[in-house]
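Researcher: I'm preparing a figure for a lab meeting and need a structural model of a single chain. I don't have an experimental structure, so a prediction will have to do for now. The sequence is pasted below. Please return the structure as tokens so I can convert it later.
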Amino acid sequence: MLDVDTGIDDACALLLAALHPGLDLRAVSCVGGNAPLAQVVSNTLAVLHTAGRDDVPVGAGAIRPLLADPVDARHVHGDDGMGDLGWPRSPREPDQRHAVELLRDTLREAAARDERVTVIPLAPLTNIALLLRTYPDVAAGIEEICFMGGAANVGNATASAEFNVFHDPEAAAVVIDACADLGIRLRMYGLDVFYAPAVTREQAQALVDHDQQGPAGLAGRLVLFQCERFGADSGTIGDAGAVCAVIDPDGLTTKDFPVRVELGGTWSRGRTVVDMRDWTGDLAHDPHGQANTRVAVGLQVDAGSYVDLWLRTLRGEL
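Model: Understood. Here is the structure written out token by token.
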């Protein structure tokens, strides 16, 4: 299952999850983030329609963060959140259930069949926080949560904070705490690895030439939009890397660290504080102590293999 705020890189991730033969995409939940919620839902339905996956239910979720004022990232993703391509909209409507109810029902159904589902949040964690605190029994249906968000060493929304966590830091803190309470494995695909898997202009144009109006054409145009917006020779597949990490976990090097989310700092609100200390003397004299939750933090990625995985999936070669 994916939780998205479809933008450009969410669209790249949705295409991968929808088309890869090794994944069973059961549901997609939407949250306001890169664009307002209504636009996110429209973008998500359009991407799935392009991928021929109108069978996947899409739920509209939280319209705003738990406490913070909403922001968006249309300065990065375009006015429509998806590159202003004028891409055809889907005729389909979203599921009548709230996204949190869609996630709840999907996970309960999996648990009833003695199955476990991987949850891949690629957006502010508002929906996931509401899910885990309102319906903690869904933990029985979760294999792991592999989320795109945070960073050990860098920020983008601010000098300290990554956008998804910065947009709703209270929700991120709730999710980290709830995973500790419920025994859910948590992996963080953050900015430390996010930018590395990048597609060149030439590779993107080859996707467009491969299939002008299909999934490959959409994916190539999204990368080309990034190249134009940033004056670069390549564009990242971004959130799609977190989906790659589920398909090919060996391509992501992680290490378990205690992690907290800074909620009060003037300059550091929304920062994921990754505690890398290994000397007990420092720890013994820290008045805060260590965080209770250990997160598998992504530190290095096999960028070439993830880009190849994404390109081959979009070209239908798997």
